[in-house]
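tool_call: predict_structure(chain=1)
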Amino acid sequence: MGRNVNKCINCQEYRNCRDSFSSWFFFIIGIVATIAVRVVTVLIPISPVYAKVAWYIGVIGFFLFFIYKFKVSNARAKAIHQRALVEKINRKEALSHDDYALIGSILCALDSNKERINYFFIFALSAIALILAIYIDFLK
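tool_result:
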């Protein structure tokens, strides 16, 4: 479970930001897609067929991952809009218990370790892919 499981268990976003099956499923899809797209350059000289398979896996994986992320983000934006939270905060209005619960759930979701791990994989594998591509294209 996540490091803040006690404060997040009752939050509306718990299933999106913590250890739900769907969040782990799409997290893994994102990691696989990241790896697949990054190995394309390495696979091209080895086997263009494998490179194309990796490209399709990566693009389809990113497609599915970002549909999921869009759905989650859209649901959060809709909840913020329905409760008029931005307007209430800008006017320094008193917030209801439900307003605080929604804000807490959004903050809980932003504290996701899976997000940070995903960004790390994207950054690290992009750097490795760039170094390998430069080596293959210019130094080999």
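agent: Helices lie at 5-8, 14-17, 21-46, 48-82, 85-90, 97-110, 113-139. Proceeding to next step.
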